[in-house]
Amino acid sequence: MTERSDDIRAVYELAALTADEAELAAMSGHFEKMFKHLEDLSRVPVDGVDPYFALPLRELPLMPDRPERSGAEAAIRGTFVQSAEEFLVVQRVVNRGGGACADGEEG
Amino acid sequence: METLGKKEIYAGIAAHNTALNAYLQVVPETATQGGAGPLSGVCVGVKDNIAVAGLQLTCGSKFLEGYIAPYNATVIDRLTAAGATVVGKCNMDEFAMGSATTYSAYGDVLNPWDEERTPGGSSGGSAAAVAAKMCDVALGSDTGGSVRQPASYCGIYGYKPTYGTLSRYGLTAFASSLDQIGVFARRPDDIRELMQVAAGRDHHDATSIEAPSFGAKGFSPSEMRIGVITEYEKNMSAAVRPAYDRCIEKLKAAGATIVPLSFPEYDTVISVYQVVATAEASSNLSRFDGIRYTARAEGCGFRETTAQSRGRWFGPEVKRRILLGTWVLSRAYYDSYYLRAAKVRTVILKRWQEFFRQVELVLTPATAGIAFKRAEQPDTFALYLEDIFTIPANLTGMPAIAVPAGTHDRMPVGLQLTADLSKDGLLLDAAAWLEKNFMDFATIERGCRHDTI
Amino acid sequence: MTRYEAVIGLEIHIQIKTAGKAFCRCASDYNAAPNSNICPVCTGAPGALPVLNDEFVKRAVAFCLALGARVNLTSTFDRKNYFYPDMPKNYQITQFFTPIGAEGRLAVTGADGAERDIRIERIHMEEDTAKSAHMGERTLLNFNRAGLPLIEVVSHPDLKSGEEAAQYFKKIYDIAVKYLDICRGNMEEGNLRCDANVSIRPVGSAELFTKAEVKNVNSFAFIAKAIDYEIERQIGIVSSGGAVESETRLWNAKLKRTETMRKKSGRNDYRYFNEPDLGPLHITTEFVEKIGASLPELPDAKRRRLKERFGLNNELLDLFVGYPAVCAYFERAAESYPAGGRTVASWIAGELLRVEDKENFGKVATPPEHIAALAALIDGKKVTGPQAKELFGVMRETGKDPGEITGSDPRFQQMAGGETAAIVAAVVRDNPDAVAKYLGGKDNLLGFFVGQAMKRSQGKADPAEVTALIKKELTNRQK
Lengths: 107, 453, 479
Fold this sequence. Notes:
The complex is a heterotrimer. By secondary structure, chain A is an alpha+beta fold. Chain A is 34% helix and 8% strand. Chain A has 3 helices and 3 strands; from the N terminus they run ααβαββ. Chain A has a two-stranded antiparallel sheet with strand order 2-3. The longest helix of chain A is centred in the first third of the chain and has 18 residues, at 21-38. In chain B, strands 1-3-2-4-6-5-10-11-9-7-8 form an 11-stranded mixed β-sheet, sandwiched between helices. The model of chain B has no long low-confidence stretch (mean pLDDT 94).
């Protein structure tokens, strides 16, 4: 089904993944099979059924507005691959407005 | 808890870990912290997706190579406060996605009873460590069966609590509404003791609940109605059938009433799981981008760096699941896939709630068969179908345990018990009764005894 | 020639000043050292989970009520998925499917002077991102801001001009910062952020056309300018046969124009779905009512009440509605002298605010009762205008009330009856040359006479009275 081969590139982009042509072809085949299998979802009648988004009747617990040190600040900074004066440093990865390296996402 | 003692455990690790590859990181014996308390002297193996401060947290992935957990999971805090010792981080399928621990970026784990076979997955390392006596108990994680299936393949007990009973704070999320930390042990009472310390509400986890009672109460089969699922019985393999029939006979002889139950949606659980689990996973794994971890490919912008890093350092199974999850959440597909699957999930929950109006426990196979040979691993798709018995308990949140039930071809065979929400105590009582009256780990050991163990 | 009208909607993000963050116990302190108020949750570490701050909920509900919105007793938290360096999890926890508030309204005054309700579509809770600073080839990330609570207010595209948009934004600002005190109100720190969606259409059309987003106009001074510029720009494009592109633009304050930031490539697919780590939020009617009962009087109600009670003009109403702390002071003063509301108000606006900062109206040296007493003296003509100003100075120096001061200080003694007339007569009598010149046409000599009379009275005469008497005297001389 060719309708999925365009879709798959769009999905790769949404998922922030790259692939070469060979992988794309293999994935396409895999997903054809998956979506065929997923058709059995339409077998089960769901009229008037609410979606399961959380176990019913559970109250959402809240936390009080009293700050607490996590104690993990230094350890978290220790996981920064590159840092400078406690900032996490990344290569200039944000490029606004036009050009080959334009970042199309939010700001 | 009867413990093997640190010396014997470290001797076991030295003897077996190189071959089995169950542990990715072992805490040097001299560096182990142990304390006083109800779990004093207990040595715990911890799946490498559960945070132990100061130890690695690779989740079986190259993406997190070199990452040191900056904090303790709540469960780890509670266990160590009770005197337990963490001896190492256990190997696993990458990001908990897999059923054979053959998708780890750090090499396969082997089944201690037959090194040509898998231990199951994704918590294969934890299961192998317990079966090979390289720890007293181990923690794994169970999203679609990742504790119960390897327990079944390794001849030990593998328990998934009621959703919310063990805090998920510190468990690297795979599918948030399905994940639970699970416990492996050679005896159900070991699990009970661990749960008494670790279970219960955690203010760090808004989905956690009050612990049910884990005090041992006797189990009287004559007062029990035990459900069996007719659709499963029609499809049972020759490996599992004898153990299943013997177990039912044992329970009947002790006075239990066996009640046949019909589960018409039994095969749709896989589709529901595929959609819901991959959708949540695709979002949970987005935090692994190209800037915060060692996996940093070259790229000329943020998007390209991220896509290259993820493309290069995620394994193919992880990519497959992220892609499917992203797909089913996309605007054009959300209603027919994600929303629909969530509704079918409600239907399945209602079905199982109906079961527990008729019975106290449901007895089913845990796996289709015994551990398969690594060389004969079913293809990607067929592997997904293996989870058909374990998935319902994750979809419903109900507690379930895999118990050793016999051997076949000198490999362990397991069965599964499921109970209603928060009836974890009853589940462990039933497992303890079966241990005494039907099958225990020692018998499995004798039945599977292999030259290397 | 087609005439066009503007269609404008505003999305405003308000940073809520809770002590902790939205979903973790880290302090929300802005000025802390970089990456010091962080934890596994707000840095998106593997295994971390969000827990909702109860104060955040209370303030969100208060804000919904203040905008006349319906509070949804059940609201959901949802994930908005997209990748960006300042996003610790690469998804944002927000409220998409069922926000905490819906269907609110806020009145603005249109160009025609008529009041009109701007409909508010939704009010919801979400979390803020980390802060990124760009330095040459590197970007520095500071997660102190990540996870701070935000309330987003989205209006329907009911606004028609930059001026209206500025009014609406100012009102939201006042309510959040000055009335409910849920936001610090520092625009430079980004405590409030405003994005405008601007489109145009032929007058009379009910369709909506392609809109451009003008982002981050975070200054009252510029919001009207930026929107008006954008409207003109779009009219320019359409009237010359072009089409407005769907894009995001930034306001360039130096060049006074909007510029393309990036094109919108189709609609972003954020793959919204329910946040599984947080179930739905259930709040009770009692909870909402309790918060409603503790709300202060809001701007529009205050305006109506002050107008009715004291008959104040628009300028004074704007002052008191815009500065509730000043208003509270005024009302306490007016309590001591209810009939003199206008005088008290004018004095506060004119004189008190010369020496007190209305933006930081905290401890004021002069008690409001003293201002009321001063106003009573003015209205009762017991002191002249200039005397009152001097008296106020003495009040501030000594802290004494005006009655006490006028009782003892000769500068503030009243002129005896007829005294002023006598002084005026003497001044006219003693300056025949000036009188002759004045009568000959030099009208500007009036000031000279007034000055002379004021000097002789040692400043105690009422200049208005003096001027009137001198004019009368001189006119009499003419005859």
